[in-house]
Task: structure prediction
Amino acid sequence: MPWIALTRAVSPTIADCEISHIDRTPIDVARAIRQHAQYEHTLAELGCEVRHVPPAPEHPDAVFIEDTAVVLDELAIITRPGAESRRGETAAVVTALQSLRPLAYIEAPGTVDGGDVLVVGPRIFVGRTERTNDEGIAQLRDLTASLGYSVVPVAVRGCLHLKTAVTVLDEHTVLHNPAWVDADAFVPLQAVAVPDDEPMAANVVRLDDTLVYAESYPRTLAMLRMRGYHVVTVPADELAKAEGAVTCCSMLLRA
Result:
């Protein structure tokens, strides 16, 4: 079944983005736009139908569209982002998703960022972070229980989102930074640790048998390829200055 990738343009105001766990450094907007275009091109080459949600120049973080919804095969849950400045990003995503999935919503006082939600089969791992609270996690559980999903809260420390610390390599394996999340949370899945000197390297987009990965982490890349994974790399270091990563820049769903 083909993939649809919803994406959103880099905002010209991206330098005013929310920053939580890294130092703010100057962002070259033109370079970030080029990197995002290459990312979209890569997704298209891998068979995704790339659909552009209308730009939101007034929202510095809008390129990180993943945070605005949690999309399952049966349902799309529109989030209530933890940063108040981002809550206006969801309206256009509602429009983009309403013909593709039934919609549900996280309501106040719950907060959820999509970057804190990792779906592995029938389990939905949800990071407890500054952006996702216990009320939001409880609402996710209520919205998905009848569909056969179990929600597993995960403690996250030292980074922005759960997916900053861990993502899926295949049905049986996750890639993680043990300094930020404990492997025990994902048992019986195997947890592969990133090298200590590449702490941001645990974020990867899985598209069937291909991994889309930032080219900034050569040691982890070599390890993944040694393990037999087919990995396609993209430049993403400029977007990383906005505390984003490759999963953040698209919302992937089965057509």
User: Anything to note?
Assistant: The chain has a mean pLDDT of 97. Helices lie at 29-45, 90-97, 134-144, 162-165, 218-226, 237-240.
